[in-house]
């Protein structure tokens, strides 16, 4: 049907366009409706673009005709025309491009280079078309090079590729891209014209700096000209790296010369910002062609430390861009160079009149620096007090109003604590002191996000081995937040439970017996909902204590309460879902239950349930093996180090342990009592135990 309808509809559309060209504005709505119908018919009505006589007319006239009629229809149909050809490229790539790609590349290039600015939506379609053509992997290599056939799955059906089809498309694209002068001019156009900040960006920066920063991180190529231009720039650089690298380096050299003696011309500032953006995006592609460190020392740092920086409408465009750029090139910075970099970033953070966007960029770059594989702890330690102070000062700045910004600041503090570890020393108190006030002040709808980040930060602190870890105030604060986060009677616990339990599991390792009594007091509360999740965690702590520190266990659980402890563990083992307990806890529980076989005769009454639990655990898969050789010892976290020291029992160990404990139990209670107890155990369980 599409074959029959398309020629008729194209004739109607052509007649309407002719009538509109003569000045009859009454047919505008009809033209728009026909355009839309023809759009969907051509895009969705054919699996491939069939060789109809009407197709060449549509391809050659669709966009060109409406570009000439913009005075009548305000480019609405031009958007549809370009979107139509762009969708044809996506849905039927080989059919649409084998004949028409060169034509559209030349046509759209002329539109992009036209002195008159085009609407953003039109430019997005133009740039997207170039990106799809340049970045299409189908054109990179002929199928015969792989000695196999290649079938491409598209939304309109499978397409079987052959050398002739791919070579024809490559020839169409090559005719446009072989002119290196044209390609270099095009790349420079994309950078300096379409990757620069717009007046709307500057206005939003002035009115809402935090919102502007968040928007820059979330822009997509579907609705932003700059994001779309960035995608095209990267595609061009990846496919023509050798040819375009000299052009990019020339732009960077020109920008460096301007930054040495900057002028207050706004157009020059925005151009420099666009070039620095391109330099950051292409850091991976240029790392072998450009030595970033000398440029950083002799151009970027002096500009950052200059008392007077050029602005656009009062907005410090270039300082923010330079700080962002540094984060893109961290791999090329030596430890000696990072010292002046730390100084420059902290100077920006501590400046009372520094722009909020610049400070936020400094926070993110500082976090990238400490998380980088080349981070040297000794180099950064002298800056610790200043860094923590600057971050908390920025956190409390009246200009900071969004939770997202505060989360980024706390995230940076957490990253510093994590990588510096015990080197934090007295700075731990500096980190902890503001947290109670932040916890109490978090009263908005996003309070749980901040409190969750505080719990995560405290977890990192508990991982650190430092001499003042037993600080009473710190211990009380941690117990307080754990009690709040793990209390199901608190409505917010649903958001904080996981992080609260993660912090709680570290408390016995950090404080030992001193904290177990307090944790046991917390678990005695009768929660309103989801009590299993809380009780399971505390039972796991007690079970681990019974294995690794029996004296501590019996300090908390008197001997006459052991039977109650065993009954509670068995009840939860068989009643709580496997995912709630998890394989690690199940192994610890089973090992703990078996440990009591040689402690109290009360286990004889529960022998069947204990052995049934053992059979379940030894029959489970073993996904918990840890290979220490695969862990980078220089970058291993303290938490992982502690966990590898206290790994849950392995399946082979549990098998041997069960058999050994049963033999000792038989000797302790006597053969007659032991046999009577085993007679009550299911035969299938006994057979499995005997086979261990």
UniProtKB/TrEMBL annotation:
This is Importin N-terminal domain-containing protein. SUPFAM superfamilies: ARM repeat. The chain crosses the membrane at residues 501-523, 535-556, 562-581. PANTHER family: IMPORTIN N-TERMINAL DOMAIN-CONTAINING PROTEIN, IMPORTIN-7, 8, 11. The keyword Manganese does not apply. GO terms for biological process: protein import into nucleus. It comes from the Eukaryota. One of its GO terms (cellular component) is cytosol. Gene3D superfamilies: Leucine-rich Repeat Variant. Keywords: Membrane, Transmembrane, Transmembrane helix.
